[in-house]
Amino acid sequence: MKYFFLILLGMTVLSCKSQTKTDLLALKFDESISGIVQADPQLKKDQDPNLGLNAFRTNQPGNYNIGENKLSTYSFPTGYPADYNQLYLFVDNKDQASYLGFKYNTVHQEETKAIISYLKKTYPKYEERATQGNGESFFWDLPTLNAWVFVDQGISKDKNAKQFLSTNFIYVKRGTRMENSKDSKVITIKEYDKMMYPDVLK
What is the pLDDT along the chain (202 residues), one digit of tens a residue? Predict the structure, then answer.
């Protein structure tokens, strides 16, 4: 009976651990996330295709939150094989796993609205960028958190030629440069985003 109780207790602890969510906004820049990487076997070494940042990537982001918003493992129902949610955890160095932020790409339409609403409510001072009708784009400069936040959308089409939004949520340490560069001649993530969305809406 004693052994049965111990086994049951162990299973309960493991179950609770598996349900633990990591709030990506609560992680500290420059601190190691090696414990998170080791605990999540779905995270694989990768590199962001647009920003060139070292990263650990997963297409099963259900163990993570952006504030009060639980992220979802999701594929767009009538989309193509590439139309699914994915999370990149940015790191300065893949071996040391020093945290620089994240990018969450989601094709879940309601989830997108909820996260944007949460960011606007939590950080009410932001810029809205012109996108020429291709979704929305927002930027937050948060000196107290030493962070930049970007929300960029693009319009995709599913197999029925119906449009839906694909949204990138990027939260990154201020001053971070493309490709993890330390060279001051290499543009920052903020400069890159401004090149992509140069006009601020008034």
Answer: 444 443 444 444 343 344 458 999 999 999 999 999 999 999 999 999 999 999 999 999 999 999 999 999 999 999 999 999 999 999 998 777 899 999 999 999 999 999 999 999 999 999 999 998 889 999 999 999 999 999 999 999 999 999 999 999 999 999 999 999 999 999 999 999 999 998 888 6
